[in-house]
Amino acid sequence: MLPASYELPAALLIMAGGIIACIAGYRLFRIVLAIYGFVLGAVIASSIVGPTNTLGMIGAALGGGLAGALILVFAYFAAIALVGGGLGALVSHAAWTQFGSGEPPALLIVGAAVAGAIAAMFLQRYVIIVSTAFGGAWTIVVGLMSIIGGRSGNANVWILYPTMPTESRWTLLAWAALGIAGTAVQLAVTARTKK
Question: Could you report how far apart the first and last alpha carbons of the chain are, in Å?
């Protein structure tokens, strides 16, 4: 967890990363992965060191952030395949429960996961666009909630907790609106291929 004096700058940096991901995630996909990998690695590494050890916390955050950025940049094809595989397994399981009885056969789930992974690789442009738009939108909302919570004295907001409880409906509506807008921008402008 970040010391209180670093929460506003961290929230602003996270919002900036969210804006980049939301509106230009496809074009800057490796950069977006590096940003999110850095944040994730920094959070994991800095949580090991106590908050009173400032120098150790900064060193752990930088080291963990660099490691996380490298891991995500080099593993992005695997991530796309995993998303597609998970969706394939989910859809096949949901369809089986609607039309079949009991648990679906393992071969059906494995086949659907493989088909989903292959489809995601063929449709990776759209998988990347939608996931970066909605991921960036959520990051913007989390950063904004941290800034609002910090100014109002609300201690329940933590910028690095991605599934914070939504006490107000506007957070989900803002996330959906920003995600849809980011998807539209990326499809219309930033995701065009050069002729």
Answer: 47
